[in-house]
Amino acid sequence: MKKIIPFFLLLSVFLNVGLIYKFFYAGETVSLAKDGRSEIKMSPENREYVMAEMRGFLESVQKINEGIAKNDPKIIEKVGQESGSCKVDGVPKGLVKSLPLGFKKMGFETHELFDVMAKMAKENYDRQQTQEKLNQLLNNCVACHKTYKISVEK
């Protein structure tokens, strides 16, 4: 009897770790699309939210590029704050759970890069460094679009 208790305790720990990984890190609905990308299937509402966020990223990138071109750190600071980590508060219920870990990491890193550019513009603006961060952010966007395709679950 005393040998069975540690076995069930260990089994319970492994099951809990597996469930936490499955529901919080791994994501749910990913398959391979015809074009070789990982296809993420989500509800129409969640897909629309993600697409709107990506369009917002593109608009922010354009405005930051304008700020760099005009050598105006105020534009960069404002836009960076609007697209930074504070934006993740309004995420629809169930969305994060449905996303694969790699997609989540790229998304959070992208928000963080906007925060970094806003902070750089406010505290110690340097055009070259800001351009490098913007390029890093764009590399993130390209990698994400090369890796993932978002479709509506049926």
Brief sketch in words of this structure:
With 154 residues, this protein is mainly alpha-helical.
Could you describe the 3D structure shown?
With 154 residues, this protein is mainly α. It has a single domain (4-152), classed as Four Helix Bundle (Hemerythrin (Met), subunit A). It is built from six helices and three strands. Helix 3 packs antiparallel against helix 5 (101-123). The longest helix is centred in the middle third of the chain and has 26 residues, at 44-69. It is elongated, with a radius of gyration of 20 Å.
Describe the secondary structure blueprint for this structure:
Layout: H1 4-26, E1 30-32, E2 38-42, H2 44-69, H3 73-83, H4 95-98, H5 101-123, H6 127-147, E3 148-152
Parallel strand pairs: 2-3
Antiparallel strand pairs: 1-2
Structural descriptors:
single chain, 154 residues, mainly alpha, Four Helix Bundle (Hemerythrin (Met), subunit A), 3-stranded mixed beta sheet, 6 helices, 3 strands, electron transfer activity
The rough form would be described as: elongated
Residues in helix, % = over 70%
Briefly, what CATH class?
Answer: Mainly Alpha
Count of structural domains = 1
Percentage of β-strand residues: 5-15%
Give the CA-CA distance, first to last residue. 49 Å
Specify the biggest β-sheet.
3 strands, mixed
Radius of gyration: 20 Å
Poorly predicted spans? none
| Annotated CATH topology | Four Helix Bundle (Hemerythrin (Met), subunit A)
Please, what is the average pLDDT? 86
Which architecture does the CATH hierarchy give at level 2?
Up-down Bundle
Strand elements, count: 3
Decide which structural class fits the backbone: mainly alpha
